[in-house]
Amino acid sequence: MSRPNQFTKAILALVLGVSSLTSTGCYWGLSTLGPSLGPFAVPVPISPYLQKKKEDEFWQHERYDRVPILGPITSGANIVALDPPSDDEVMRALEKANPVQGGIPMLHEHSRNNVRIVREKISDYIDPPRVYPMIGPAQQHHAHYKCTIYFEDVRRIGWPVPHTLRDEDSQEVIYIDHNHLHMVGNVDTGSGSQF
Question: What pLDDT, on a 0 to 100 scale, did the predictor assign at position 172?
Fold first, then answer.
């Protein structure tokens, strides 16, 4: 029998090391009972940037991307749009148009301080009734808002010469549309019981 060479010893040590790391704790193997996902049960690390991006997409979809369907407009009622844009909605729209999140700490940082938001309703009108697929006859109610954001723009630059740039009179204008539907006609919501 010949003695194993250094390469064979290194491969054997690597296999033993990997197997000892993967067989610790509650992990797949012969000791588990019931169905197992095998190697797919191992959590995969995800970048905080991608995680925040997905969380922001879900928040936007859940809060602002859906169109509510309200009851029919009664005759003689004062027709007013839903609530104006919230501070969160305005800041998310501003961040989408002019992002400041991110940056490199101690090298280049950008922030908005002392934020003040002024909302103005530009228009509020209702379209004539029409039939929408999967909804039925409805009227679309439009409300357009002009949101002016006043803030202090602070930029901290750390290289080559550390300095801070402050613009205390910054402002941005964002236009936000709020649309929702009103049902038309004799509406059966299905909430009443029929006996």
Answer: 96
User: Identity (one letter) of the amino acid at 59?
Assistant: W
Strand bridging mode 69-70 / 163-183: parallel
Strands 130-132 and 108-126: unpaired
Judged by DSSP in three states, 56 sits in helix
Task: Give me the count of residues in the chain.
Answer: 195
Q: Which residues contact 43 (CB under 8 A, 6 or more apart)?
A: none
Give the C-alpha separation, 194 to 8, whole Å.
Answer: 80
Provide the pLDDT for residue 31: 53
**Please, what are the averages of pLDDT over each run of 10 residues along the chain (195 residues)?**
76 83 57 66 85 92 88 82 91 92 87 96 94 91 96 93 95 95 77 52
Global pTM reads: 0.70
Please list the residues that pair with 138 across neighbouring strands: 130, 183
CB under 8 Å, gap of 24 or more: what pairs does 93-101 form? 93/147, 93/174, 93/176, 94/149, 94/172, 94/174, 97/172, 97/174, 98/172
Judge contact between 156 and 109, C-beta under 8 A: yes
Q: What angle do CA 139, 145, 82 make, to 5 degrees?
A: 45
Query: Under DSSP, is residue 130 helix (H, G, I), strand (E, B) or coil?
Result: strand
Query: Would strands 108-126 and 163-183 be described as parallel, antiparallel, or unpaired?
Result: unpaired
